Amino acid sequence: MNFLSHYYFDRSTTSCYFVLGTVLPDLLKNADKNIILHPEKLHHTNSHVNDIIKGWNKHLEVDRYFHSSPFFTHHSHNLKLKLLPAIEGSPVKPFFLGHVALELILDNLLLTTGQIQVDEFYNHLGSCDEKVIAEFLHFGGMANSTIFFNFFDVFKNEGYLHTYADTQKIAYALKRICMRIWKNPFTPAQEAAMDDVIIAYREELLESYLAIFNDIEKQLSHS
């Protein structure tokens, strides 16, 4: 799941550090795909650092349920098939595209149906003391956290996730993600064709998309 979908499960949480932890695995991956941390079983004397660890573990648990769900299998496959004609000639792997497109659509639906407020998410991230984050990263085994904090500052200041509320910009967001792997993933014509597919698929999911969040919440409550 993407940033805002992870936030949905803890939108009422008061700990900014726990919220940060729920999205930190993806933030680190975006900062530098070579960063690999495994703090899952660590315990720190600082409760704020432990909140980040707990949030991190929640992230892993949510992703595990989501990626093994029939919802994910069905809709990522369907999106892949529908997007194939639109990206003919593109170097992007169709499975990757269907996977990421589904996650972006879910973030868009949460925003546009009022399930979450993106400003509240950013407020949580902005409330975290960087010294606590640095201690977590050091405790988790990262020798130099400069790369992460450079990215994190831009991530917070840009407020890019606000654009996810604009359905017609989902294809652009998808292109930005693909550009981390492929230099020129789509032509303008391909991007426009992807827009059409994504907008139509969003409408298909509009009435039923919350079912996957409800299903995951049930599994979380029994774990």
UniProtKB/TrEMBL annotation:
This is Acyl carrier protein phosphodiesterase.
